[in-house]
Write a structure and sequence with these properties.
The structure is a homodimer. Chain A has 9 helices and 13 strands. The first copy, chain A, is α/β, with parallel strands linked by helices. In chain A, the strands form 4 sheets. In chain A, strands 3-2-4-9-8-7 form a 6-stranded mixed beta sheet, sandwiched between helices. Chain A has a 3-stranded antiparallel beta sheet with strand order 11-13-12, covered by helices on one side. In chain A, strands 1-10 form a two-stranded parallel ribbon. In chain A, helix 3 crosses helix 4. In chain A, a hairpin with a 2-residue loop joins strand 8 and strand 9. Chain A folds into 2 domains: 168 residues, 3-Layer(aba) Sandwich (Molybdenum Cofactor Biosythetic Enzyme, Chain A); 70 residues, Alpha-Beta Plaits. Chains A and B meet through helix 1, helix 2, strand 3, helix 6 and helix 8 of A and helix 1, helix 2, strand 3, helix 6 and helix 8 of B. Chains A, B: It comes from Lutibaculum baratangense AMV1. Chains A, B: InterPro entries: CinA, FLAD1_M, MoaB/Mog-like_dom_sf, MoaB/Mog_dom.
Chain lengths: 251, 251
């Protein structure tokens, strides 16, 4: 990583594609990128999904790139007529879109005589874009300003993200601890947990309920940049959960 | 459904929760709602994920509710301190938030003496909100204006969505057909597929590539409100794919 500063480094994700909004394809990229960035100490602050419509792509790109340190997009960089992400980026940045010579070379060297006009579309990028290497299927993504444009296919996106990661400035990662409620319900813990949160403003305490075997339980997640605060808050939460854990069949 | 008009009915989804943006919890609600709305003939046009921050929730709610016929939110309506969606809605609509008497009654009747101050938080709603019944775990969601506020736990959200569906106006559903490329690559089909798209402006033709056993293939999805156009476009795509399907080991 190129730097590890004390300040928060922030990011957004933009998923581009009608197939996600129709529900035909289920997005798996947001969750992957979220976890990946958290591991780097970069805070994902927002995610959006927009259709394959130029104006929608450009508007979302501009809203997100101006507000966060980084924007990562997925989808719409393939060879078919509905792949219009490069044009969306050109519109957002006010830059002409043309075939990037280095991208054309990569496609030529890997595709040989299979490089037709459709596949050549994959070399189209706004002027000034830098290539993002694609270790999975060769056709590159690109970076323009603080925006990284990646493929939509999860395996390809993941390969590109590995290429991008070393170039990112990163923040101080949060220390995280999770405590399983083991059948403790949110409603039983809510009051005292709020008191613990107020006592530890430097610790973010989240309660994440889920259903399990037809009943509900919750997991308490604590995040902090201070190991000391985290340990102190965890001790309080652990004590609270110990007092409240069900011993019998209470539902 | 209360109506089936010829015009498009549009919607957005807003997922609220730090745990989704940290990657700790993987969202499963957007994909479910997307597919559900498509089945009703309602077009999901945008989705966003925002953190548990009042101003962020309110800004996203206002951006989305003004632009689309419906907004569906998930998350942040539980009993703990980090459940602030009701306050976010109050801020967005400029309405005070208080305990809804009917919601208090529901909680009382199901929880009895387990109804503490934390659980009572689940009855807080902006003034004028109407309850959305929760057939799974009782604590209701609510509707305010064109916004439906639902739980984040998938099973609970799904139960609420079933309650909401009969109250929605619905559009004419798209007819959908999908043709498997069986090893045809996007780059081989891209040129002629674009020609077919231009010949059938009333059909939306999407190409959705994926990796399969280390190689790539694509699925062509056609959508139209005209059965005739859909059949004609499908015939052209089927012919094209038949010409291009690999017969040997070409990779």
């Amino acid at each position: 990583m190129s730097g590890n500063t004390g300040e928060a480094v922030t990011a957004a994700v933009l998923v581009i594609g009608d197939e996600i909004l129709s529900g035909r394809t289920k997005d798996r990229n947001i969750g992957y990128i979220a976890e990946y960035l958290t591991g780097l100490g970069i805070e994902l602050r927002e995610a959006r999904i927009v259709p394959d419509v130029l104006g929608e792509i450009a508007a979302a790109v501009n809203a997100l790139r101006e507000r966060y340190d980084y924007l990562f997009t997925t989808g719409g960089i393939g060879p078919t007529h509905d792949d219009i992400t490069a044009d969306g980026m050109g519109l957002a940045f006010g830059l002409p879109v043309s075939h990037h010579p280095d991208a054309v070379e990569i496609l030529k060297s890997h595709l040989g005589d299979r490089l037709n006009e459709a596949r050549l579309r994959m070399a189209r990028m706004p002027e000034g874009a830098e290539l993002v290497r694609n270790p999975v299927s060769n056709a590159p993504g690109f970076r323009i300003g603080n925006v990284f444009v990646m493929a939509g296919i999860p395996s390809v996106m993941q390969g590109m993200l590995d290429e991008i990661a070393p170039t990112l400035k990163t923040g101080q990662p949060y220390l995280v601890d999770a405590i399983e409620g083991d059948g403790v319900k949110e409603g039983d813990i809510g009051g005292p947990l709020g008191e613990i949160q107020r006592a530890f403003p430097g610790v973010m305490i989240g309660s994440y309920p889920r259903s399990r075997d037809g009943s509900f339980t919750t997991t308490i997640v604590l995040r902090s940049r201070s190991a000391e605060d985290l340990a102190a808050a965890k001790a309080r939460v652990t004590q609270l959960l110990g007092e409240l854990r069900p011993t019998g069949s209470r539902s």
